[in-house]
Specification:
- It holds the Pfam family GDP_Man_Dehyd.
- It is an enzyme of class 4 (lyase).
- Keywords: Decarboxylase, Golgi apparatus, Lyase, Membrane, NAD, Signal-anchor, Transmembrane, Transmembrane helix.
- It comes from Winogradskyella poriferorum.
- This protein is α/β, with parallel strands linked by helices.
- It is 37% helix and 17% strand.
- β5, α4 and β6 form a beta-alpha-beta unit.
- The longest helix is centred in the first third of the chain and has 22 residues.
- Bound molecules: nicotinamide-adenine-dinucleotide (NAD) and uridine-5'-diphosphate.
Length: 313
């Protein structure tokens, strides 16, 4: 049994990760400031003997004896990370320093939830880990993109200077049950709009692409990454390479929900990447043949069913 700290554990991805780690027989400390996460996401874990919930903001130091740290605390949706951009950068940068400091003190292994956003609006397609990215350092998305890039730098330097055992994953757009209905990301927006019969809001002309990964595939890749040999630190892309336009996504959601919603077009936000698709060759090689198993249709079905129940409560 390992003692594992999950920051951002009451969030969408973090809650699935806590569940998985508990099911594997570990002790889990879930740390969250409830900015975008909620106790509801982890309600079902509260009675678990080996689950502990701590309200804490990772911009402040935290002390605990742990074997592993999964650093997932950070708002991930553009609406949320742009709400207080300075705080977003602090969460990524000071949060990384605090968690790396903890890992150094207690000799814990630490995994960073980085993002495909480190590639910005990519000029290389699909994106391999060797691509340095095309990021605007002073735009609307910079607080998130540059915060995450700086966190990667800190991870690498703590590893080089202090021999901290690190792992970096670059997560591509992930969706699934427990996304917040007002999260603002495209999958949750379209599903909620379709279920309510409201207009589906496409930003721009809808030809921009994303590659959508179901949350279970991400959790599997994340846990496998933590368990790789110490010399493999990443960064490694974790995502589903099947690419869709936002128009295709809207059509699929309208079909699956049987909704009468119409599509409406709104302006494309600044610096919105035109395309995104992970190159997952490295993940396949290093993560014991890992690859996404759940296709968009099946993943959307279970996500729609989650939101259907939530919205009818
Ligand atoms: P989320 O917003 O649902 O979860 C983030 C969690 O972190 C929330 O519970 C929030 O309350 C908590 N949090 C935020 N700031 C904090 C702070 N200062 N101190 C303590 N807790 C704090 O988002 P998510 O989709 O679950 O994303 C989880 C992680 O994965 C994030 O680090 C995100 O950058 C990364 N990621 C997610 C995606 C995706 O598509 N879901 C893609 C790339 C990277
Ligand atoms: N998007 C959209 N309608 C929405 C929300 C988002 O068309 O209601 C678009 C957004 O402009 C982007 C894509 O969907 O091109 C993915 O957006 P999301 O916020 O989910 O993720 P990110 O841009 O961070 O990849």
């Amino acid at each position: 049994m390992k003692r594992i700290l999950v920051t951002g554990g009451a969030g969408f991805v973090g809650s699935h990760l806590c569940e998985r780690l508990l099911n594997e027989g570990n002790e889990v400390i879930c740390l969250d400031n409830y900015f975008t996460g909620s106790k509801q996401n982890i309600e079902h874990l509260m009675d678990h003997h080996y689950f502990e919930l701590v309200r804490h903001d990772i911009t402040n130091p935290f002390m605990a004896e742990v074997d592993e740290i999964y650093n997932f605390a950070c708002p991930a949706s553009p609406v949320h990370y742009q709400y207080n951009p300075i705080k977003t950068t602090k969460t990524s940068v000071m949060g990384a320093i605090n968690m790396l400091g903890l890992a150094k003190r207690v000799k814990a292994k630490i995994l960073q939830a980085s993002t495909s956003e480190v590639y910005g609006d990519p000029t290389v397609h699909p994106q391999p880990e060797s691509y340095w990215g095309n990021v605007n350092p002073i735009g609307m998305r910079s607080c998130y993109d540059e915060g995450k890039r700086c966190a990667e730098t800190l991870f690498m330097d703590y590893h080089k200077e202090n021999k901290v055992k690190i792992k970096i994953i670059r997560i591509f757009n992930t969706y699934g049950p427990r996304m917040h209905p007002k999260d603002g990301r495209v999958v949750s927006n379209f599903i909620v709009q379709a279920l309510r019969g409201e207009d589906i809001t496409i930003f721009g002309d809808g030809t921009q692409t994303r590659s959508f990964q179901y949350v279970d595939d991400l959790v599997e890749g994340t846990v496998r990454m933590m368990n790789t040999r110490d010399s493999f630190i990443g960064p490694v892309n974790i995502g589903n390479p099947t690419e869709f336009t936002m128009l295709q996504l809207a059509d699929e959601i309208i079909n699956l929900t049987g909704s009468k919603s119409k599509i409406t077009y709104l302006p494309l936000p600044d610096d919105d990447p035109m395309q995104r698709q992970p190159d997952i060759d490295l993940a396949k090689k290093e993560l014991d043949g890992w690859e996404p198993k759940i296709n968009l249709r099946d993943g959307l079905k279970s996500t729609i069913s989650y939101f259907d129940t939530l919205l009818s409560q």
